[in-house]
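Lab notebook, design round three. We kept the backbone fixed and only want residue identities now. Task for the bench partner: fill in a sequence for the structure below.
Input structure tokens:
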């Protein structure tokens, strides 16, 4: 059970409040044959000192100039020695059986290239919220990944190293540097990689039902962040279109509609109901697929946007607390 080395890549940038707990969730794993590659991405807080305070031979710290999340992950993959590679963002947590269960999953079927799990949301204080990501687990196609991204977040997947090697490319400005994630992205770099793997690799994506990842939701933010996230997603869309125009012709409108609905839900979390209504309206104008396939989720999104837009903030916070287990971000 402990014969396979698993490499864990953890980018670290200005997360002094959370990183110790994230590291401890790795050290608490029941599967012990791992290396934890902490990529110090040149932040300006005490995150590095927190990481250095851990005394465990399995931890390796690599410092680099700031390259962003994609660049830090690429550095970690290039340094990794494991047959399987896992990613953990430095503000998220893992269930203690996560590595063990993913290893069993990957060992059980050589055709599975990307193993992922459901995720429980937690707040700033690591308190579990009522909401969770419970993705589709089997029969995952490229178009489904593009439209719905069942992996959900960057702390969920464990991947065969061979899968990543198959889609690697040289950095366009530094040909000595091997890339897996596209470093031109500051957001949406993960979904771009998943779609690229799905379109070019014979390996399967398959999930595990237990909620093995604890995905942190931090309050606050601006609608400008939603716009930036959409712009980044659109860049990913354009890149897929250049590579596979027929794929976009068939599935692009539905994928964009789902993305707009997702961003509408994020806008509600940030307390901007007016912007959420704009986004959900654009979503439905592009495609009715989210409404027809997931009518309850879509109607809840519309209702939450209307409440956030037209009701007083104290009432909104009370409703959000009942839904998520915490107050709204307003």
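Proposed sequence:
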């Amino acid at each position: 059970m402990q014969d396979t080395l698993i490499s864990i890549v953890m980018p670290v940038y200005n997360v002094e409040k959370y990183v110790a707990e994230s590291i401890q969730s790795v050290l608490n794993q029941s599967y012990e044959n791992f290396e934890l590659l902490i990529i110090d991405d040149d932040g300006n807080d005490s995150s590095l000192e927190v990481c250095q305070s851990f005394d465990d031979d399995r931890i390796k710290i690599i410092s680099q100039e700031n390259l962003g999340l994609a660049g830090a992950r690429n550095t970690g993959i290039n340094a990794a020695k494991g047959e399987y590679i896992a990613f953990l963002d430095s503000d998220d947590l893992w269930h203690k059986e996560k590595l063990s269960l993913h290893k069993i999953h990957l060992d059980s079927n050589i055709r599975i290239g990307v193993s992922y799990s459901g995720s429980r949301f937690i707040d700033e204080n690591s308190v579990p919220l009522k909401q969770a990501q419970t993705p589709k687990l089997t029969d995952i196609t490229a178009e489904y990944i593009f439209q719905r991204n069942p992996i959900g977040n960057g702390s969920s997947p464990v991947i065969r190293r061979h899968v990543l090697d198959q889609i690697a490319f040289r950095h366009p400005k530094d040909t000595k540097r091997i890339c897996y994630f596209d470093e031109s992205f500051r957001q949406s770099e993960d979904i771009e990689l998943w779609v690229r793997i799905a379109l070019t690799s014979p390996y399967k994506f398959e999930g595990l039902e237990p909620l093995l990842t604890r995905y942190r939701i931090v309050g606050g933010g601006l609608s400008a962040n939603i716009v930036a996230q959409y712009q980044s997603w659109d860049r990913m869309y354009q890149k897929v279109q250049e590579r596979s125009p027929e794929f976009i012709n068939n599935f692009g409108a539905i994928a964009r509609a789902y993305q707009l609905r997702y961003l509408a839900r994020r806008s509600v979390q940030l307390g901007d109901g007016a912007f959420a209504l704009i986004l959900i309206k654009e979503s439905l104008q592009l495609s009715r697929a989210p409404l027809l396939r997931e009518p309850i989720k879509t109607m809840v999104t519309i209702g939450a946007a209307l409440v956030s837009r037209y009701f007083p903030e104290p009432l909104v916070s009370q409703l959000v607390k009942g839904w998520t287990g915490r107050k709204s971000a307003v």
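Keep this in mind before ordering anything: The two ends are 47 Å apart (CA to CA).
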